[in-house]
Amino acid sequence: MLSPGNVVERYEVERELGGGGMARVYKVRHVALGSVHALKVLDPELVGNAELRARFLDEGRIQARLRHPNILVITDVVVAPGVAGLVMDYLEGESLDKYLANVKQPPSPDEVRDIFRQVLAAMEFAHQHGVIHRDLKPSNIFLEQVHGRRVVRVLDFGIAKVSDKLSDAEGRPVARPGSRMGTPQYMSPEQIRSAEEVTVRSDIFSLGVTLYELATAQPCFQGESDAAIMEKIVRGEFVSPDVVHPGLAPGLRTAILRAMALEPERRFASCGEFAAALVEEAPAPVRAATPLRVPVTRAPVAAPRVREPEPDGNEPTFVPRPAPVQAPAARVVEARPAPVRLAEPKPAAPLEKRAPKLAKKPAPPPSEEAEAEQEEAPPRGKPWRWVLLFALAGLVALFGSALIGMLSGGSAPSAPKGGAPVTRPGGSPGTRSR
Ligand SMILES: Nc1ncnc2c1ncn2[C@@H]1O[C@H](COP(=O)(O)OP(=O)(O)O)[C@@H](O)[C@H]1O
Ligand SMILES: [Mg+2]
């Protein structure tokens, strides 16, 4: 245990920053340069253990290889009698576990994505360089404040597993036997069964548990003992994150559950894939491609629910009517009838006042069919014209026959040629003799 003012090699201790089971981290100042750093030293009782000391210093070598903006930089190694230490950039800010301990409600989905996108970028890089972290959890993720901007850093590659790509022809990670186990709450089921079983997908499981905690502000696995917690992990027993936080974005829920799948092959294959799922997480518009539209002429009176075929070809099921996404033309309407509005009652205008309006209304131009019909149809007249015509013809005939009678000198009208006797009212039938 170091105290303020202690000097370790060229570094003077200012204060303690944190620490776990095997090491402690201090804020230190370089005595010659005055620069501020963090110094992580192995606990004094463990320094004597050569294997532990070697493994601890390995962390420095592994992390020093990983130059990435979201991975804490190791700048130096300090080895002195009774001391083994790693010198690192000093980070201003707080670790994710401390941040989560202080939040009153779950961070917003945007904040969750902003933090986690950076964690995944760091781990994608580490994995691509053959390094599996094996101890990913909130206390190993740091939220640094750089000129008011948040930069996320992944720390503590102390139990990382390294694949030596130069010596392994197939590029498989090479396990170092006897490595320390991870923290039970964030360990993958396969890591619990065997520390040597870890793969990239084991880190992805731990990241899923971490994302669960970040997005809901509640730890995923809790129990009275490490054994109880590990049993839950192996069985996949946990409360769904959307139950813990009902406001959880659906895409975040999906990503968490996929990352935490019991079988490694069902998880994301890489942190890049995991990150892509977070970007795509905005929920797609529900069935936007098939908005319900019905021709105007056939609009049903009411259709509160829509029958749509199931994508897998099963029997169609009733689903809630989707909101229309496009309303392309006036010829297409929603199946749901428009709400009936009762118009304000207006006093009826007097008939004579309304009539001119009707008269002014221009007649619609006749259609071609109507015109053709008009040409073929017989001329139409009004019936009284025919009556007048017949009366006139009768008069002319009467007047004509009287005139002929007068000219021929007889008083009796002549019978038509070869015709029947003409009956005169009040007279006897007569015959015309020659
Ligand atoms: N470079 C750093 N700058 C500031 N704080 C740090 C730094 N490194 C670690 N810490 C703090 O110390 C804690 C423990 O560090 P870590 O490397 O995780 O040690 P351990 O192996 O004991 O878990 C971190 O959670 C963080 O709060
Ligand atoms: Mg740690």
Can you walk me through this structure?
By secondary structure, this protein is α+β, with helices and mostly antiparallel strands. Among the domains are: 7-89, 2-Layer Sandwich (Phosphorylase Kinase, domain 1), CATH 3.30.200; 93-287, Orthogonal Bundle (Transferase(Phosphotransferase), domain 1), CATH 1.10.510.10. The protein is 34% helix and 16% strand. It is built from 13 helices and 15 strands. It has helices spanning 44-47, 50-65, 96-102, 109-128, 189-193, 200-216, 226-235, 241-244, 250-259, 271-279, 351-360, 368-376, 383-408, and strands at 7-8, 11-19, 23-30, 36-42, 74-80, 83-89, 93-95, 131-132, 141-146, 149-154, 161-162, 294-295, 305-308, 317-320, 332-333. A hairpin with a 5-residue loop joins β3 (23-30) and β4. α4 packs antiparallel against α6, α4 runs antiparallel to α10 and α6 (200-216) packs antiparallel against α9 (250-259). The model is unreliable at 164-180, 288-381 and 409-434 (pLDDT under 50).
SSE diagram, text form:
Blueprint: E1 7-8, E2 11-19, E3 23-30, E4 36-42, H1 44-47, H2 50-65, E5 74-80, E6 83-89, E7 93-95, H3 96-102, H4 109-128, E8 131-132, E9 141-146, E10 149-154, E11 161-162, H5 189-193, H6 200-216, H7 226-235, H8 241-244, H9 250-259, H10 271-279, E12 294-295, E13 305-308, E14 317-320, E15 332-333, H11 351-360, H12 368-376, H13 383-408
Antiparallel strand pairs: 1-2, 2-3, 3-4, 4-6, 5-6, 7-9, 8-11, 9-10, 12-15, 13-14
Helix pairs in contact: 4-6, 4-10, 6-9
